[in-house]
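Please, structure for the following, as tokens.
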Amino acid sequence: MQTRNPILDDLAKVATGAASAISGLREEIETRVRDQLARLLDGMHLPSREEFEVVKAMAAKAREENDELRARIADLEAKVGRRDPASPIEGP
């Protein structure tokens, strides 16, 4: 026959209570850290992912247009005959 020891029962209850308190404390710390991090990031005025993607697309389009304009300038310079900008313009 097994008898219950009240001291061991009390210790088990204390250990269970401490474990649940530690778990609650961990959740509270995680929540506070998450809130602080959100506040910090909000203060940095970082763009959203959507805003970043829009600006990235605009930059890619501008780069393509720049490359096209460079090619046109090179073509025009080849047709005109590349002149030195410091030399005087020859007239009729």
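The chain has a mean pLDDT of 85. The radius of gyration is 36 Å.
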